[in-house]
Amino acid sequence: MVKASPGAPNVVFVVLDDVGFGQLGAYGAPIRTPNFDRLAANGLTYTNMHTTALCSPTRSCVLTGRNHHSNAMSSITEISLGYPGSNGNIPFENGFLSEILSKQGYATFGLGKWHLSPAEQTSAAGPFDRWPTGRGFDKFYGFLGGDSSQYYPELVRGTEQVEPPSTPEEGYHLTEDLVKTSIGYIADLKQLDPDKPFFLYLATGAAHTPHHVPKEWSDAYAGEFDDGWEAYRAKTFARQIELGIIPEGTLLSGHDPDVQRWSDCSADEQRLYARFMEVFAGFITHTDHHIGLLLDFLERIGELDNTIVMLISDNGASAEGGPTGSTNENKFFNWVPDDLQENLAAIDELGGPGMYNHYPWGWAWAGDTPLRRWKRETYQGGTTDPFIVQWPAGISARGQVRRQYAHAIDMVPTILESLGVTPPEAINGYSQADIEGTSFAYSFDDAEAASRHTTQYFEMFGHRAIYHDGWRAVCPVPGPSFAEAGMPFGAMELTQEKLDVLDSTAWELYRVDSDFSETDDVAAQNPEKLKEMIALWYSEAERYQVFPIDASAQQRLLVNRPQLAAPRTTFVYWPHTSAVPENAAVRVLNRAHSITARVVIPETGAEGVLLAHGGNTGGYTLWVQDGTLHYVHNYVGIEEFHVESDRPVPSGAVRLRFEFEPTGAPDVANGKGAPGRAQLYIDDELVGQTDLPHTVPLLVSLAEGLTCGRNGGSSVSARYAPPFEFTGTLLDVTVDVSGEDLIEDDQARIAYLLSRQ
């Protein structure tokens, strides 16, 4: 058995989600984060740490020390493409820190958000070699996808799906659960093997959508954001200057053309938008509180001083709530616009289990103060993030700022140098690729040391940038803002012709060593330097497998994904099985399909869900209630289209069936899936019919999959409370998407329609 070196420090990575440069107290924010501030006061605050501008790509950098395209993670795995730099399969040649440290005698614990396995490989069928326990973690507890309800998470322990230990009504919240479990894992280890060090990778769901937090945490901020996002920026900027977070001479970047001025918002808009921000701030403070409990525990057991804690956010603040914010982020991914009056009606429910809320992008712009733009873009606002390091036993400096240039790929080599560990030549039989990051351990006790990470490329959805020795060139896509480009969020298709135009006209140039917030484009004054930087970007892009460049995002949801099984049009599901993740579940959207349940109903009757896909953010469900058969199509949480049988379900062996037949084409650009005729059958007899004016166009659900015999997670329909397990005998449910098995019985349809006159 391998033993770690005597006195080897523990390692803790805390990875926050969608937290911008100006959203923690230690970085000047008016959001209260006393425990993150405590880390900064006892450690180092880095102000020049960079990420990829998106979650999974950054996380792959954090854990491997390689660039995201080298990790085949150009984007998130749900919209991966088949090219080497973007297929979503992190090579085994790029070992994880967990794999390295487990071979050095460390216990390794992964908790929270993973989002590093190919989306089609996250079901109960595996394969599990790219799950956390397949990449070096002894234990894992969390969720595999990109985001999760904080109240109804689809949890995995090891490789098994598990239910949350309690309900929202009983006070459940995912952040609290993750921290409690982290403490439990560490306690189990230390009470049995006190000298064994651990690596804890704790990736919170916070502060990604949904911004879920108990109401008392949001109410603590009542009225504090009523003066709007410009005021937030001004206060944060002043505090950043006071704290020395931003370099002397930094200017506050100008008003973003995409962001409505607060004074131009109506009173209703201001009231709603301020509440969105109160909820977000409460979410951050709630997260800080629970991370504080972890730090308190480590201190109580005498482990904190010899623990290297690194806290980072995976990208800049998120603009995915759009200009108005949303009570349901699933609307954004389905291109469905939000409605002010609908959102106002839900204002008191924001942050609760019935919402999937996200603030307006004005708050994302403010949250990245003093920088430009936000997540998904490679301006500094998308790629420059909070980063705090604490290690009392190994770093003598306390409460100091570090300005050395660094990137998420630098975390692994820094840890290895600090531990005195040489990167292995092979892991599990795979020869290892070179680590591409640069250790910044040299900066721990030398604030004036020159940066050793001198060149770094960026690319996300075609938005490109390159840093080199204090210079930064940026090529924004579709332009510096959507307003200036005359295009909606995420709409650009990047052809070679457009790329050529961008390369000749769109690149900007900044001296970020003296213009941290990218306010002065000096491209016109330095044409030769700009050419040099563009050439350098292409050289780095070739080196790290960036090509081809693809600017599409939501459009990729329409692409057929790789699947484990051979292509099929019939899917059979059984009760008492694991939830099927979105990317592995049958795709019924915009196509003819049928759902047939074979059941046995006792003489006393039965009720419950036969098949449910999604949750309160959108989906569909087939169930029996009060003796009749029901179907609901939940259109992104806005409305429920319901059809009910006009006669009771009989006892005995029965086939209960739903059919959908499209009657028109989808209008995806306007957030509407195919309209169609919805019909219910009992033993091939038509018993209910309605027309659906439109359906969900692209994505059934962000984080809740398909379940048979129950409604896992939040309820697809408000007409019942989950899990509403079926109380009869459910043999199986077959979903057919061939369109060939629809019952053709025109006489029955005519008779049914006449009976309803």
What does this protein structure show overall?
It is a single chain. This protein has 757 residues and is an alpha+beta fold. It folds into three domains: 10-438, Alkaline Phosphatase, subunit A (3-Layer(aba) Sandwich), CATH 3.40.720.10; 468-557, Arylsulfatase, C-terminal domain (2-Layer Sandwich), CATH 3.30.1120; 565-755, Jelly Rolls (Sandwich), CATH 2.60.120. The protein is 22% helix and 21% strand. It is built from 16 helices and 29 strands. A ten-stranded mixed β-sheet has the order 7-6-5-4-8-1-9-10-2-11. A six-stranded antiparallel β-sheet has the order 19-29-20-25-26-27. Strands 24-23-22-21-28 form a five-stranded antiparallel β-sheet, with no helix packed on it. A hairpin with a 2-residue loop joins strand 6 and strand 7. It starts with 9 loop residues before the first strand and ends with a helix. Mean pLDDT is 95; it is low at 746-757.
Q: What is the CATH fold-level name of the largest domain?
A: Alkaline Phosphatase, subunit A
In round numbers, the mean pLDDT is 95
Helix content: 10-25%
* Name of the level-1 CATH class of the largest domain: Alpha Beta
Domains (count) = 3
Give the SSE map.
Blueprint: E1 10-16, H1 34-41, E2 44-46, E3 49-50, H2 55-64, H3 97-102, E4 107-113, E5 139-143, E6 155-157, E7 160-162, H4 174-192, E8 198-203, H5 215-219, H6 228-243, H7 267-300, E9 307-313, H8 330-333, H9 340-345, H10 361-367, H11 380-383, E10 387-390, E11 400-402, E12 406-407, H12 411-419, E13 426-427, E14 430-431, E15 455-460, E16 463-468, E17 471-475, H13 482-485, H14 496-505, E18 508-511, H15 527-543, E19 570-573, E20 593-601, E21 608-615, E22 618-625, E23 628-635, E24 639-644, E25 652-662, E26 676-682, E27 685-692, E28 706-708, E29 729-736, H16 746-755
Parallel strand pairs: 1-8, 1-9, 2-11, 3-12, 4-5, 4-8
Antiparallel strand pairs: 2-10, 5-6, 6-7, 9-10, 13-14, 15-16, 16-17, 17-18, 19-29, 20-25, 20-29, 21-22, 21-28, 22-23, 23-24, 25-26, 26-27
